[in-house]
Protein 1
Amino acid sequence: MQEFEENPPLEFDPEQCRNESEVESKLIVQYLLPALGYRPNDWHQEVAVGSIRLDFLAFAAQVIPFVLDANSPLSVAMEAKSPKQNLDLHVRKLGRYLSSLNIKYGLLTNGKEIRIYARNSDTIQLVFQCKGREIQDELNAVKRLIGRETLKNQDHSIDTNSQASLQSIGKDEMKVIAVYHNKGGVGKTTTVTNLAAAIRKRGKRVLIIDLDSQANTTFATGLIKFEDEESDNLKSCYVYHLLKSEELFPVSEVARKSEFCDPPISVIPAHIQLMEKEVELGRLDFTRGTLVEKLKAAESDYDVVIIDTPPSLNLYSKIALIACDYLIIPSDLKPFANQGLQNVSTFIKEQNTFRRYVSKPAIEVLGVLPSKISTNAKFFQSTFPKRKAAINRYGFNVLDSVISEREDLAKCAELSYTIDDQEIPDPKSVFDFKPDSPSAQEFDALATEVLQKIGLVV
Ligand SMILES: Nc1ncnc2c1ncn2[C@@H]1O[C@H](COP(=O)(O)OP(=O)(O)OP(=O)(O)O)[C@@H](O)[C@H]1O
Ligand SMILES: [Mg+2]
């Protein structure tokens, strides 16, 4: 058995793993097992059961001697491969091991890539995937899935109860959601940032794209920390660059890592100058298709992309509505916002016409999201149902989730700290600001509803 290190290293560097045995020792033994809460007595190396030989078997609730049967405690098999190996070639075998031994989860890695599969009767589904060098950022998501504490608190009913959700996990194609309303100030940006955080915290790889020249999402994700033009580190590489070139500026180059949420989220920033670029970009024949193409090239890097849009019917809104698969329309349901839905409806129809020309299916409108809704009991009981009913007139569904008007949502986007009398913006998602707040719960419920509707439930 390999030597166990008392204090797991804080960093894992895939470059240090040159062969299978280094993946076993440096990634699994020294890093993952301790980081996931498994003590030396909770796991075994080179476990042979009949003709099966597992590299590692970790138990959430059992020590030696271990038993593997239908009632066996929750356990994880871990298979290490050489960095030269393609993991796809080992998935079927892992599936066979998990089914034969009644093991719920299997982790498969070659150091460069880490995947987790969940068994559902006789099939397995991919439930998590990240690059080896991203594991530090992804650790909380991995813990939530196969950490010792998580598994200890689960019961065996997952096998039958989660059947429906596990089936949909298998679809690992990237989903693109635009958040749009042509009325300003209805909560689009607040929805983008906090929905992205809620989905990220469930282990999905999320990309936010800011297509609004007000750059509010860019600010709310903490990417604007500079005070003056000289230290503006965004204007040389932001969403305009991604749109203006067919070959250069891929998503990976333009996206920045934002710490407004833990784990971090990738964000393609906007810039105030985006406004004056509209005419130039509008002249290019290909602009409306560039985002579609660039996202296609990045589809193995993200599970969910969320696009923030300007409150207008301009080129950037068109680009968003052409690139998306799904649309959420936040609305405070006030009379002007409701009247604006007529424009939204016409705008969607126009973009669907363009999509037909380029053989893209029509936008799937997930619904109008009641946003900034007063928590006043009387309003909620009498006025709110009437306002919701008015939406149907415009041919839209209303989502079940509701985002109430609460100070925390405005506050978390405006947090800052001071250094040498300089105020540095340090915004957080509502989950990272107040995880137990009613607003966090509302956004969590929205994430559940949205993930269910787009077939991505964990
Ligand atoms: N549920 C809420 N409770 C309290 N304040 C909110 C809520 N949602 C949004 N706000 C605040 O309302 C203002 C407008 O919200 P937001 O920026 O999300 O709207 P928007 O639709 O993106 O606006 P724009 O059309 O200008 O881009 C912001 O100051 C935000 O902090
Ligand atoms: Mg906005």
Protein 2
Amino acid sequence: MDTTKAHTGKWEKRWHPLRREWVVYSAHRNNRPWNFEVKTIHKEASSYDPGCYLCPGNLRVSGAVNPDYQDVFIFDNDHPVVGLDAPAIAEEISSAHEGLYKRASATGISRVVCYDPRHDVSLSELDVPRIARIFRALREEMVFFRNHPKIKSVLIFENKGEIVGVSNPHPHCQIYATDFHFNMVRREMEAMHVHKQQKESNIFSDIIQAELKDRKRIIWESETAVVFIPFFARFAYEAWIFPKKRHATLITMTDEEINGLAEAFRVLTRKYDGLFRSSFPYIMAMAQAPVDGGYYEDYHMHLVFSPPLRQPGLQKFLAGPETGADTFMADTIPEDKALELQNMDI
Ligand SMILES: [Zn+2]
């Protein structure tokens, strides 16, 4: 029996400093490079779809009619997950079994953000000024939520592609503004506090510095922004975008920094599309500090892309370890995936 064979490739655990947990990598299980046999998706969509509830002038399920918008269009979700008119929970049923089981109103605001009136474009196909306009509109939304007495935290996210459950290709993202903190940001802030106590430094700055020093996972960099697959990536093509200067949320970012973020977004999504020769699916979440009036100057906002594909047509299933035990196991190594994206000319 050849005992050396099983140990070729990379096989190790890496510490995820912001989640404070291990990620397991075993690249020997899947070290054959994939070839590019993927078919280029022929786009049959047109710029307007009469059946699309996001296209200009169309009727939505609520009975509202979309305006003939030319730019970014934002409206309250017709099927809100959190809402200001969510049913109140009566005091007598808000707590049971001596506080073990609690319930509360699903208070918040759910919004949909249409990037562009055209039905058949994706964000990677828009130019930088247009993407920057989207980010500026999101910045305005953040100012609104910061000033809203019921909102404490805002999640801006984009689900892209049928593989992540989005059947409508019209380019859009969503906003969930809530009266509670989202787990990702809550966990990152806990890690940030622990790190500051132990090392007297900022965990986000330290990660950015480490990536810039290692260089091998950097996908793209400008004066104001940096894109990399982190050392501790959980998904094969997971990428993070940071503005280089620390901002807790979009609110304090200058137009120039917003432009840098837009350019980073465009470069990354074009590299994704180019590498997979198709419109690459992903889940993008914008990690921002809460907007509940607290002090969050140490928090460094960032964008996290979690693509479900490991190869064209091959999905990473969140199975036993991930769903069953909340622990990620990857069969790719971040440096290898970063190299593929680095080499992808756009
Ligand atoms: Zn549409």
